[in-house]
Amino acid sequence: MSIDFNSGIWLNEPRSWKADESGLTITTDAKTDFWRETYYGFTRDSGHFLGFTAGDSFTATIRIRGEYHTLYDQAGLMVRIDDTKWVKSGVEFTDGEPFLSTVITDGKSDWSVSEPFKELEDFHIRVTVINGAMRIQASRDSKFWPLLRLAPFPIATQYQVGPTACTPERSGLTVNFSEFSIGPAITTDLHNLS
C-alpha cells in the first residue's frame, strides 16, 4: 500500500519540509541524530523521523535521493518501538564517502556499514519485520535486493515506520523520499534477492 506522506506523525519535525504527489522533501536542522550510548557514551534522540503505524509483521520500502558530503550525513528508513528500541538503515557519510549503514538499537546502539554498490545518490531500502527478526535489503533498481543485515528485533504488536534523516555535524542536508509503501511481510528465502 502506497503511503501519503502528509498522514504521518513527526518526531522532531524539521523546520523545512514539503510533501506532495512527488514525495517528501526535507532539509535537516543542525545537530540532529539518533544514537544510544555505545562507544561515544551519549544518547541522542533528536533526528527527524516521520512515523506511520505498521502491524506486528510487515515489509516497508522507500526510495531515497540526496547528496551526502559531511561526516555522518544520513538518510533512510526507521523502524521504532520507542526511544530505546529502534533501527535506522540507509546511507551514511563516513570516512570520506557514503556507505549503506544500519544502526540497530535495543537499549544500546549497534552500527554496521557495507558497500554492495557505491552509487548512493538514488537507491531503495526495504525492511521486513516478522517473528522477532528484521531483514534489511538495499537496491539500486528496485529489482535486485542484496542483504544488508539480518538481526533479531523485539516483537511488538505494532511499530512506527518511516523516513528519517539526520546531520549530527551540520544543518542543510536536503533529501527526497518517494515510493514509500508498507505491506505484508515478504517471506521469500533469504537468498532470493528479488
Structural notes for this entry:
With about 190 residues, this protein is mainly β. It has a single domain, classed as Jelly Rolls. About 0% of the residues lie in helices and about 55% in strands. It has no helices and 16 strands. A seven-stranded antiparallel sheet has the order 1-6-15-8-9-10-11, with no helix packed on it. A seven-stranded antiparallel sheet has the order 2-3-16-7-12-13-14, with no helix packed on it. A two-stranded antiparallel sheet has the order 4-5. A hairpin with a 2-residue loop joins strand 12 and strand 13. The mean pLDDT is about 95. InterPro entries: ConA-like_dom_sf, DUF1349, UCP022704. This is Regulation of enolase protein 1 (Concanavalin A-like superfamily).
Summarize the structure.
With 194 residues, the chain is mainly β. Helices cover 0% and strands 57% of the residues.
